[in-house]
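Technical annex B. To support the medicinal chemistry partners, we prepared a structural model of the target in complex with 2-phosphoglycolic acid, based solely on the information shown next.
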Amino acid sequence: MRKDLIAGNWKMHTTHLEALQMVQKLSYRLDPGDYERVDVLVCPPFTGLRSVQTVIETDNLQIQLGAQHCHFEEKGAFTGEVSPQMLSKMSVSYVIAGHSERRQIFGETDEMVNSKVKAILAEGMTPILCCGETEAEREAEQTEERVGSQVRLGLQGLTAEQVASMVIAYEPIWAIGTGKTASADDAGDMCTFVRNTVAEQFGEAADSVRILYGGSVKPGNIAGLMAKRDIDGALVGGASLDPDSFASLVRYWI
Ligand code: PGA
C-alpha cells in the first residue's frame, strides 16, 4: 500500500553541471520496472535544481526532484532564502524539513520546522520531516522522548489527510555520515515508534505516512533495513553521490 521511496540528499555537493551528469548516470542504471516499485528522488543543492529539472523533463525521466531546505514565508526580506513557491514552480515535488544539519548548524527549531512543513504542503509539495536523537540522548535513554517530541511538534496543526501524504525520516544523528548505522532491528523499532506516535494523534493517517530510515545507508545494509515492516525507504547522503551505489540502493532487492 505504501510505495517505497529512496531519496538522495546530495547536501552541499555537486555543481549544477555535476548534478546534471549525476542524474543522467543514475537514469542509465535504472529500468522502467524499478520506478514501478520505488519512487526515486534526488535532492541537489539549489543551484542544481534547474539543470536537473531540465534533464528530467527533456529526457522524460521518472526520477523526482526534491529540495534540501526552504523558508516558510512566501516572499520578503529574507536574504539568501528560497520560498516554497519558488520551488514548486520549478517542479520540485519534495522538500526536506528539519534535517539534523539544519537543526544543529543553522539553529532550526521545531517551531520553524513546523512552519516549513505547513508552507511546503500549502504549495502542493511533500515534506520530508526529519527527526533523530544525538548520541548523548541515546546513551541517556532519551531517544523516544526526543524523537517523539520532534514528530509531534513537527506535525502540529496539520490535518490527518495532510499527515497521510507526508514522509517522515528517522535519522539518528550519530549514524549520519559516520559509517555507523543503526542495526536493522533498532532502526525498524524506531520507525514503528514514529508510526505509533503519528497514530496517537492522527489515527489511520499513520498507515499511509511513509517512514524512511537515514544514517549511513549503503548497498550492503539496505536490504536488512527494507525488510522491516515500518521502514518504507531510505534518505541517503554519502552513498547517493555515486550513481552506481545509488542505483543499487534503489534496486535493494537484487
Ligand atoms: P549519510 O547521510 O547517508 O551520509 O549518513 C544521511 C542524511 O544526512 O540524510
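Notes passed to the chemistry partners:
The longest strand covers residues 4-9.
The radius of gyration is 17 Å.
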